[in-house]
Amino acid sequence: MDQTKLNTLNCMDWKLLPPATDEMIERSMRVKGRFMGDPSHEYDTISVKKNEEEMASLELKVKEEERLTATIEQINREAAIVPRGAFIKTPLEQIHKNRSFGGLSVTEAGKLQSYLHFTEPVILKKKSQLLQANLEDSVDFLNSLEDDELKG
User: Fold this and answer.
1) Among 9, 87, 98, 109, which has the highest number of CB atoms less than 10 A from its own CB?
2) Residues 74 and 108 in one domain
3) Do 73 and 85 belong to one domain?
């Protein structure tokens, strides 16, 4: 699903961020440290570990705007959640927005099982056949937040 990502410096003027590419994400993940707050700021030289004993200095130009876009994309890939029923899966394995979804009821909105991770399912395949029998194939194709195990 396409999302619009905007950036602002003064909360009045908004600018559209460029879409994240895999190359942009790979380059941006090499930059360490805090954001500078200036979208035009360029990070210059980045040290890259070639192997265990050798450090190489690689000249990469990464703009802060690209790094911000890549960071947002990584967060969305790892932590995006959607309400149960907001998306459906067709028999051809395509995922579409459910046009008939009108939102969760007040009681359903308070339940953890009403929300799904919008990422590639992992736990779903590990459920027993008895638990899988109660699932709706077109709606329950993602992992539920109810299945999450808290660490720490």
Assistant:
1) 87
2) no
3) no
Task: Quote the domain boundaries for residue 74.
Answer: 6-79
Per DSSP, the residues of the chain read: -----EEESSSSSEEEPPPP-HHHHHHHTT--S---S-TT-EEEEEEEE-SSS-EEEEEEEEEHHHHHHHHHHHHHHHH-EEETTSEEE-TTS-EEE-TT-----HHHHT-GGGEEESS--SGGGGS-HHHHHTS-TTT--S-BGGG-----
Exposed, middle or buried, 32 (CB in 10 Å: 0-12/13-18/19+)?
exposed
- pLDDT, tens digit, 9 for 90 and up, residues 91-105: 898 889 999 999 999
Residue 1 included in any domain: no
With respect to residue 152, please indicate whether it lies within any of the assigned structural domains.
Answer: no
List CB contacts of 103: < 8 A, sequence separation 6 or more. 83
% of the chain surpassing 70 pLDDT: 79
Whether residues 110 and 88 share a domain: the answer is yes
Do 96 and 73 lie in a common domain?
A: no
Tally Cβ neighbours within 10 Å of residue 73: 20
